[in-house]
């Protein structure tokens, strides 16, 4: 189920596909929260089978290796927690 995190920075649409047990996913979410970025996310591993299949197909469109986190900032895909790329994509 998709979750929404409100923030003061709303100028870019941000979506995160993550795993609930992934350290890098947690770091990416914390980075976005700490910087006041509004974003939505889904923990793929907590979805039911049908939703999980759909989420994995969505991830694969942007990240052929289907690894996590996969972060979409507008139409730019950032694979993994890469603070430098995130700052650049978000204009921080």
Total number of beta strands: 5
Roughly what percent helix? 25-40%
Distance between the termini: 28 Å
**Sheet with the most strands?**
5 strands, mixed
Domains (count): 1
Low-confidence stretches: none
Name of the CATH architecture: 3-Layer(aba) Sandwich
Shape: globular
Could you report the average pLDDT, rounded to the nearest whole number? 97
Question: Order of strands in the sheet with the most strands?
Answer: 1-3-2-4-5
The CATH class turns out to be Alpha Beta
Q: Would you list the SSEs in sequence order as H and E? A: EEHEHEEH
User: Which range does the strand content fall in?
Assistant: 15-25%
Query: What is the number of helical segments per DSSP (H or I, 4+ residues)?
Result: 3
CATH superfamily: Glutaredoxin
Question: Looking at CATH, which topology would you report?
Answer: Glutaredoxin
- C-alpha-based Rg, rounded: 12 Å
The computed structural class is alpha+beta
Would you kindly provide a brief summary of this structure?
The chain is built from three helices and five strands, in the order E-E-H-E-H-E-E-H. It has 92 residues and is an alpha+beta fold. The longest helix has 14 residues.
Summarize the structure in words.
The chain is built from 3 helices and 5 strands; from the N terminus they run E-E-H-E-H-E-E-H. The protein has 92 residues and is of the alpha+beta class. The protein has a 5-stranded mixed sheet with strand order 1-3-2-4-5, sandwiched between helices. The protein has a single domain (3-82), classed as Glutaredoxin (3-Layer(aba) Sandwich), CATH 3.40.30.10. The chain has helices at residues 23-34, 49-62, 83-90, and strands spanning 3-5, 14-18, 39-43, 70-73, 76-79.
